[in-house]
């Protein structure tokens, strides 16, 4: 999304996420950002600087599912400003959303 972005810089930044649940990859054609924007109702746009929360068992097969919660830091006006958070407000919203999802009773569907 930025002029200096490259596969090399993506690999360099990936080391800060030392968690097997986190997957970082290089997407030069912005396919994931376009698919996520479309799942949120913004076809033809590209989502970035976005935080997505999914319920357990959600699967991205051909298209991403709609998230259970989301926030962003996109400064453009095409995206819902009610989901825009920065700084401490973003930290609180991320925490509250994660806590809310984790506190719900998860039932296994057979």
Number of domains: 1
Query: N- to C-terminal separation?
Result: 41 Å
- What is the CA-atom radius of gyration, in angstroms? 15 Å
Order of helices and strands: HHEEH
Number of separate helices: 3
Describe the sheet with the most strands. Answer: 2 strands, antiparallel
Mean of residue pLDDT? 89
Helix content class: 25-40%
Structure description:
This protein is mainly alpha-helical. The chain has one domain (7-103). 31% of the residues lie in helices and 7% in strands. It is globular and about 40 Å long.
Describe this protein with a few key phrases.
110 residues; mainly alpha; two-stranded antiparallel sheet
Q: What is this structure's SSE topology?
A:
Blueprint: H1 7-14, H2 31-39, E1 50-53, E2 69-72, H3 87-103
Antiparallel strand pairs: 1-2
Structure described in brief:
By secondary structure, the chain is mostly helical. The protein is built from three helices and two strands; from the N terminus they run ααββα.
